[in-house]
Amino acid sequence: VISTNAGGINVLRYGNTRNLVLGLEVVLADGEVWDGLRALRKDNAGYDLKQLFIGAEGTLGIVTRAVLRLVPRPRSSVSVLVAVPDPVTATRLLRRAQGDFSETLTSFELLEAPCVTMTLDHLGGGDTMVPGVSPWYVLIEVSGPADQASCENTVQRFLEAAFPDEVSDARLAISPAQADALWTMRESIPDAHNRAGFSVKHDISVPVSRVAEFLRQADAALHSAYPQVQSFTFGHLGDGNLHYNPLIKLDGHDPIDTRREVNRIVHDIVFSLGGSVSAEHGVGQVRLGDVERYRSAVELRLMRRVKEALDPEYLMNPGKILHEEAS
Ligand SMILES: Cc1cc2nc3c(=O)[nH]c(=O)nc-3n(C[C@H](O)[C@H](O)[C@H](O)COP(=O)(O)OP(=O)(O)OC[C@H]3O[C@@H](n4cnc5c(N)ncnc54)[C@H](O)[C@@H]3O)c2cc1C
After folding, report:
1. What is the pLDDT of residues 259-277, one digit of tens each?
2. SS3 243
3. Which of 193, 270, 286, 323 has most Cβ atoms within 10 angstroms of its Cβ?
4. Tally of CA atoms within 13 A in the half-sphere of 156 that contains its CB
5. pLDDT tens digits, residue range 41-57?
6. Are the C-beta atoms of residues 175 and 128 closer than 8 Å to each other?
7. Residue 285 burial (CB count, 10 A)
8. What DSSP line would sit under 71-139, residue for residue?
9. Phi (first) and psi of residue 172, to 5 degrees
10. Contact assessment for residue 15 and residue 68, using Cβ atoms and an 8 Å cutoff
């Protein structure tokens, strides 16, 4: 988990894994052990070496022990599925939610309608929790130290204030079972998507203020190149991280070429908006070429210097993140 810097649906509240690591012990490529198992909130005595190993996908050393920051379990939690007309409105609703709930806003997930309908079909029905027909939905969780009734009241007031400008309809989970059903639906989207046909997956991030612009540009570019494309987008709007996974009819086209072409269209737009081609899934081998294309020469050189300082023989998880350069 530390080497992947895993994220997910609660990053908005707790940060990704990086935010929860205070100290590490690492076995280095030369066999030495670095004991950085400090439990300090503040430590400005030089470079923050642990950050190098978090999210390094095992390419710089083997993490053997860690000190993690813990947070108290929230006393209450409220989930609500909200119908919104478009991503611009969803982003406005996010700003309102951040203003109203501050750090108790735990998740804010954007779901395009097919993600919800196909997933409910895949799960075998149970659409009673879905508000009226809408092109987009937002799944929100608020959790914190207040008692359950106060938390529910706060969310109710938020929804009333946002209606009808930002919220056209909403279903508030009134029991833990209903909340579980909503989050099971959200967590099952990748499974439903995998059964829906050929698709090209992306794990992109752009600044939150540019998510709607990204979607407008990417949808337009893909519809022009592939008129029969069906968009299928879900993700962590609160972090500007979308799983932009259009379904594409191959019509005899080569899947590898199609994947490459769609990746290029989408990633060029992401790059032009100041975004990243891998928000939380890392680089591995699949995104290696993308990193080389979209990171600057200076950044690539710095990454390579770090790699060669810690693992000059490219022993650690070779072929991931950076190609070994022919010497
Ligand atoms: C780069 C990447 C990003 C991911 N992001 C997410 C995410 O955001 N959300 C999510 O839900 N899932 C994510 N996943 C799925 C991920 O497999 C799991 O979340 C979990 O982190 C895997 O833990 P694991 O112990 O099974 O590691 P593995 O799947 O065994 O390994 C994952 C990576 O970590 C390296 N690694 C494993 N153990 C060590 C170690 N002791 N020291 C150094 N390196 C090690 C491996 O070489 C590999 O690159 C991600 C996977 C990868 C590879």
Report:
1. 999 999 999 999 999 999 9
2. strand
3. 270
4. 8
5. 999 999 999 999 999 99
6. no
7. 10
8. -PPPSEEEEEEEEESSHHHHHHHHHHHHHHHGGGEEEEEEEEHHHHHHHHHHHT--GGGS-S--SEEEE
9. -90, 130
10. no
Question: Helices marked H in the chain — which ranges?
Answer: 11-14, 17-20, 50-53, 87-101, 113-123, 148-162, 176-194, 211-225, 255-272, 288-294, 297-310
Sheet order of strands, 61-68 included: 33-36, 21-28, 61-68
What is the C-alpha separation between 155 and 222, in angstroms, rounded?
Answer: 37
Nearest 5°: the CA angle 262, 134, 190 is: 45
CA distance 162 to 2: 38
User: How many angstroms is it from 4 CA to the middle of ligand 1?
Assistant: 4
Residue for token digits 């022009």? 224
Residue 324 has pLDDT above 90, yes or no: no
- Tell me which DSSP letter residue 199 carries: B
Per-residue buried b or exposed e for 76-104, using 16+ beta carbons within 10 Å of the residue's own CB: bbbbbbbbbeebebbbbbbeebeebbeeb
Cα–Cα distance, 225 to 239 (Å, whole number): 29
Q: Kindly report the CA angle at 294 between 293 and 296, in degrees rounded to 5?
A: 100
Nearest to 82 by CA among 111, 49, 46, 39: 111
Q: Is 323 in the pocket of ligand 1 (CB under 6 A)?
A: no
Among 1, 2, 4, the mutation site with the greatest number of ligand 1 atoms within 8 A of its Cβ is: 4
Q: Closest Cα partner for 229 from 244, 243, 212, 242?
A: 244
Atom of ligand 1 nearest to the CA of 281: 3
